[in-house]
Specification:
Helices cover 65% and strands 4% of the residues. It is mostly helical.
C-alpha cells in the first residue's frame, strides 16, 4: 500500500522516523506478526513523541482511516499479551 503516514509539522526528522516506525509496527502486526517486545518498544518511543491522549487518538485515527489498521486495537492486544509472544492481528 502507498499512503502518507500521519505526522505533525513541528516534529524533528528523528521523531518523524520513529513515529513512522510505530505505524510500520502496526502494519507488521496485521500483515505477518511482530514480537510483542519490538512492538512495545516502538509504541513507547511513539508515546515520547506524542504524550497526549487526544493527539495520539487523532494520529491513530488518521492512520486507521488511510490504512485500515487499528493502532488502538494493536496496542490493546500487545498490552494483554505475554512478554515473549508474537502479536498477530
Amino acid at each position: 500500500m502507498e499512503y502518507q503516514y500521519p505526522m505533525e509539522s513541528d516534529w524533528s526528522t528523528e521523531e518523524i522516523i520513529d513515529a513512522i516506525a510505530f505505524f510500520q509496527a502496526v502494519e507488521k502486526a496485521y500483515e505477518k506478526g511482530i514480537q510483542r517486545e519490538d512492538f512495545m518498544a516502538a509504541y513507547r518511543r511513539f508515546k515520547e513523541i506524542v504524550p497526549g491522549k487526544a493527539q495520539e487518538r487523532n494520529l491513530c485515527n488518521d492512520f486507521e482511516e488511510i490504512s485500515g489498521y487499528s493502532s488502538y486495537r494493536t496496542v490493546q492486544m500487545a498490552k494483554k499479551a505475554d512478554e515473549s509472544s508474537k502479536i498477530k492481528m
